[in-house]
Amino acid sequence: MASSSSISELFLLSVILTLLLGSDAGGIAIYWGQNGNEGTLAETCATGNYDFVNIAFLPTFGNGQTPMINLAGHCDPYSNGCTGLSSDIKSCQAKGIKVMLSIGGGAGSYYLASTEDARQVASYLWNNFLGGQSSSRPLGPAVLDGIDFDIEGGTNQHWDDLARFLSAYSKNGKKVYLTAAPQCPFPDAWVGNALKTGLFDYVWVQFYNNPPCQYSSGSIANLEDAWRQWTSSIPAKKIFLGLPAAPAAAGSGFIPATDLTSKVLPAIKGSAKYGGVMLWSKYYDDQTEGIVIESDSKNALLLVSNWKKAPWKVNAVLNSICICLNSLSRISFVHVLREANNLADYLAKQAGAYEELLSLLVELGGEAFMFACLSDWDHVSSWRPDVLVF
């Protein structure tokens, strides 16, 4: 009986998106800064997976408070320990990646008391993170590309004023990009008025932790309805689909990779305002890194784990596969019952059968890796790359 294999969803979500998003399909935005175990900013940009990095967060500002950045375990702002990030920021920008400062967040002390307060906050951001001058820039001399509004508390007043003041600084030379991360219920309770200004370049809507407008139980109806409302009502240049990078990254709203690529993205990327996908966060994106190859053929798994004992007809191919896979940080092979191989069955039907073991060359993070389509040697199914191109 023919068997087939599948690559599980425990696969770095940003890598899947990098492989599958075409040049006309936008980019990936990631939040970095809230977990000291997520790697450095430079390492994040070096993956080649992201087009935007939001440094999170500046959670204290406004109403006369002394602004204070909080980057969790990465550095200590109280001792000016975050100024070393300047070289990382410049490294990211040299790769064409836009680096934003995200203000607000889910926890913090921030709100704007008046239009004048908004003006003062804008002045502080310009002089300390953007193109202005200050003797105490928290992230050093590097000039960030813009400000991200992740406003989830305080009041809904004067964020439109802040956007206008920040946007006005673009007249001084380098453009100040404005982005926002509203919740998917429309209009957003906090920055809804600010988004009406038309000053925001990119808006990554959080389609999670909000059951009425997110993916749930295989259904994309609520998400699709909300997406249409956002793209038809907000005068932003591009709208992004905001998602948790792993199930643990949010209370709800995680979308399995197969559903994301086969159902959700095909349904929304036809919009002229589709910009790509935003992921929360780099730490959680890392948690899904690695590949699990599943097969219902115990013989195939045994041969891959001990390729030197394989029949001579497939020995050379297995040797090449194993050498390439050794470069991955985490790789495992799992035996599953055929009933669990729905994805593999679908791909097998699309690809057809071959007599020899085939392999698929995939560009993964800038390096080439060979993936075995594990199966019985008398009937092997291949995974065609174009099956997942949409």
| Weakly predicted, low-confidence segments | 1-11, 346-390
- Silhouette: globular
Order of helices and strands: EHEHEEHEEHEHEHEHEHEHEHHEHEEEE
Q: Report the CATH architecture of the largest domain.
A: Alpha-Beta Barrel
User: How much strand?
Assistant: 15-25%
Q: Write down the CATH class of the largest domain.
A: Alpha Beta
For the record, the count of structural domains works out to: 2
GO molecular function, one term: nucleic acid binding
Protein name: chitinase
EC number: 3.2.1.14
Pfam families: Glyco_hydro_18 (PF00704), RVT_3 (PF13456)
Summarize the structure in words:
This is chitinase. The protein is of the alpha/beta class. The chain has helices spanning 13-20, 41-46, 85-94, 115-129, 159-168, 192-195, 221-233, 257-268, 282-287, 298-305, 312-325, 342-351; strands spanning 5-7, 27-32, 52-58, 60-61, 98-105, 109-110, 146-151, 177-180, 202-206, 238-244, 274-280, 291-295, 331-335, 353-354, 359-364, 367-372, 380-381. It folds into two domains: 24-287, TIM Barrel; 291-348, no CATH class. An eight-stranded parallel β-barrel has the order 2-3-5-7-8-9-10-11, surrounded by four helices. Strand 9, helix 7 and strand 10 (238-244) form a beta-alpha-beta unit.
